[in-house]
Amino acid sequence: MSKKILIIGGVAAGPKTACRVKRLLPDAEVTIIDQDSLISYGGCGIPYYVSGDVSDEKELRNTSFHLTRDESFFARAKGVTVSTRTRAVAVNRQEKKVLVEKLADGSREELAYDQLVLATGSSPNRLPIAGADLERVFTISDLHQAIAIKELIAKGQVGKAVIIGGGAIGIEMAEAFVDLWGLEAAILEFMPQLLPRLVDWEFAGMLEQHLQEKGVEVFTGEGATAIEGEDGRVRRVVTPQRTLEADLVVMAVGVRARSELAREGGLLVDPQGNIVVNDRLQTSDPNIYAAGDCIAVKNRLTGKAGIAPMGSLANKEGRIVADNLAGIPTRYQGWVGSFTLKAFERCIGATGLTLESALAEGFDAAAVTTAQSDRAHFFPTQAVIPLRMVFDRQNRQLLGVQGFGPMGDAVLARIDAAAALLQQGATIDDVSQVEMAYAPPFATALDALNATANVADNLASGRLRCVDNAVFLAWMDDFASRPDWVALDIRHPNEASVLVEKFGADKWLSIPYIEVRERFQELPTDKMMIIICDAGTRSSEIQIVLDSVGLDNNLVLGGGFNLIRRLGVSWLG
């Protein structure tokens, strides 16, 4: 007798589970039910559909060989039965049945199962503020919302858009509105920076600066308190600091697991509402599995579990569930938290923990920031990619890597390599020696990731002392009243001359890198010197030189001006 496998949820994890099961158990009776009419689409591609990079919403539902993933496709190509517009009402675990309701006519029936898979996904959060239910206040929860947004814009009914939430979706939507459609767009983020908890403030600051250069207004540390409208339609977003005109609002303030069905069925759910699973993705009922945005996923660095709403993870989890359904014991090891994001001409990405998060988790954490070439310095398309490496001072464990640079594969390549190393429990010494593919059009002979690990080694070993970027910028903001420090600019005099003229030769010292060994006697002994170059590499070498002659009153600015420029500080002009 063939096994009956019932899957609730038809976007990512559900279809992946179904298709894998049918390959492993061709005789299994596999059924997917979903309350939506559209299934198995690339939800992460929604902003790119709105932007026009993806011209037709069907492309998000099509296979790579141009067949649309609908009920007919699954039945004919995969041997999987799909019932759309069908809502799961209740799970009867004792009888192994699920009560479902047909949304078209309200009729109900019970579907039997031998094994059940919950792939119910997540629901977008909606702020509990006045006006949240006005017309044209959207959450990017499904493809229908994206289609409605694009239709409004295409009809010329939107001139100004406000995005509440400065996470990945909010940033991608802002780009979509501005880049293709030429709308005015503003991002409101309640936390002090964009991408909170995903990157450290310097990398969020570089991203914010680029967004502003491209015409996106960004307001951080500022939350929406009300949405105002006229005739039932949104017109304004109000914060404690300002009122923003709006023809359309996108509320992108995170998601929560759709776990009501599991909770009501008596399955174990954590305090945050995520379905608790073991490492084979079984719930507290061994005949019921769960995958995707609805489950609590273990972070491999902290050991803590929480929601991990990523399409990439949902597909991996779906395969693991299918293996276990077919009797292939497969364990899910969790995630380390990797992402990448396109923002106009820039790319930002990260894996693992930020410095702030690592310290909060109790690690003896430190971080270094570099500004590395993405390919050989002599190659015509060479560009600079700031990288940040977070690690534990005591055991030298790698904890995280962040990158920012031109749109392309340079940042992605380093983040992917770091993610793989993180999952193996690598140290900064492992990263220093990891073999990276090399050719001048793609990388430097000593790869940017290797070089950043070497800087981390120098810091961990006490061979490098750096000034915190926030401390340096605070010093610059209070320049005149800080007689206890000076800047030592070791770039070419032509580069340093503007700041020497602006701040004075007694405060902004200019001695070229190549002359420091000959002229160190000119340097002060009673003031803290901040050694500055473009990337920090020459500065760290000069620190060693000065230390060797007894001038250890110095700190290096990691990442140098390549980082500071990207933050858009006013004193650089």
User: How many β-strand runs?
Assistant: 29
Mean pLDDT, rounded to whole units?
A: 94
Shape: globular
Which sheet architecture does the biggest sheet show?
5 strands, parallel
- Helicity level: 25-40%
Strand order of the largest sheet: 3-2-1-7-18
Beta percentage is 15-25%
Output the CATH class name of the largest domain. Answer: Alpha Beta
What number of domains? 4
Assign the CATH topology of the largest domain.
Answer: FAD/NAD(P)-binding domain
Structural class: alpha/beta
- Annotated CATH homologous superfamily of the largest domain: FAD/NAD(P)-binding domain
Distance between the termini: 76 Å
CATH architecture of the largest domain: 3-Layer(bba) Sandwich
What is the count of helical runs? 17
Instruction: Give start-end ranges of low-pLDDT stretches.
Output: none
Radius of gyration: 27 Å
Domain FAD/NAD(P)-binding: 4-298
Protein name: FAD-dependent pyridine nucleotide-disulfide oxidoreductase
Family: Belongs to the class-III pyridine nucleotide-disulfide oxidoreductase family.
Cofactor: FAD
Please, could you describe this protein's structure?
The chain starts with a strand and ends in a 7-residue tail after the last helix. The chain is an alpha/beta fold. It is 29% helix and 24% strand. Helix 1 packs parallel to helix 8. The strands form eight sheets. Strands 3-2-1-7-18 form a five-stranded parallel sheet. Strands 9-16-10-11-12 form a five-stranded parallel sheet. A five-stranded antiparallel sheet has the order 21-22-25-24-23, sandwiched between helices. It has 17 helices and 29 strands. The protein folds into four domains: 4-42 and 49-122 and 256-325, FAD/NAD(P)-binding domain (3-Layer(bba) Sandwich), CATH 3.50.50; 137-253, FAD/NAD(P)-binding domain (3-Layer(bba) Sandwich); 338-460, FAD/NAD-linked reductase, C-terminal dimerisation domain (Enolase-like, domain 1, 2-Layer Sandwich); 469-572, Oxidized Rhodanese, domain 1 (3-Layer(aba) Sandwich), CATH 3.40.250.10. Keywords: FAD, Flavoprotein, Oxidoreductase, Redox-active center. Belongs to the class-III pyridine nucleotide-disulfide oxidoreductase family.
